[in-house]
Amino acid sequence: MFIRLKTRKQGDKTLSYAYLVSSKHRKKGAKQKVIRYLGKVYSFERTKNRSFDDFINGPAESFISLKPLKTSLIGLVKLELENHDFTRISKNKYAKGKLLVNLSTKDVKDISNSKPVCIAINDGYLTSYTLSKMLNFKAPEALERNVGKALAKRILAAGVLLDQGIFVLLFQKLKRELSIR
């Protein structure tokens, strides 16, 4: 499955909307099916470049080794939101204009109408779907290399920039939690 953007003209504006799409290959070519509407797309540029160490006020190694994997992933999302000028309004809620990201409920929505939205950051899309897939990551029964690829894919799909050193720490944590050999 992947995220497909569709654009529509509305007066002099071009608006983008995100959809979760599956693809099946057939003799006549690929057949795509829309699985879910993910929301109107809002794009934001990175305005800050804080590191994870700076964000958590200490070394990432200590934080990641002491906290559950999900807590570390939430920390990375919080850092990315702050680097894109979202404002922290409570422990796990961030807002920018009428957009709200609730990391506890994994909601990414427009608070003016409660509709889902898609936040395009970096090279990914932060949506309720991608946030949920990342935070609820279940390692596939596969080779260690494939587990690492699956984790990295989920993180990058949600628009979170991933430093190689931080990823290595996350993967080591995942290996310890799952006892992957």
Structure summarized in a few sentences:
The protein is built from six helices and nine strands.
Describe the protein in words.
This protein has 181 residues and is an alpha+beta fold. It folds into two domains: 2-41, no CATH class; 43-178, no CATH class. 35% of the residues lie in helices and 35% in strands. It contains six helices and nine strands. Strands 1, 2, 3, 4, 5, 6, 7, 8 and 9 form a nine-stranded mixed β-sheet that branches. The longest helix is centred in the middle third of the chain and has 15 residues, at 69-83. It is globular, with a radius of gyration of 17 Å. The two termini are 28 Å apart.
**What order do the helices and strands follow?**
EEEHHHEEEEEEHHH
The radius of gyration is 17 Å
**Overall number of structural domains:** 2
In helices, the fraction of residues equals: 25-40%
Main beta sheet, described?
9 strands, mixed
Distance between the termini: 28 Å
What topology emerges from the helices and strands here?
Elements: E1 2-10, E2 13-26, E3 29-43, H1 52-56, H2 60-66, H3 69-83, E4 87-90, E5 93-96, E6 99-102, E7 107-110, E8 115-121, E9 124-126, H4 128-135, H5 144-157, H6 164-178
Parallel strand pairs: 3-8
Antiparallel strand pairs: 1-2, 2-3, 4-5, 5-6, 6-7, 7-8, 8-9
Helix pairs in contact: 2-6, 4-5
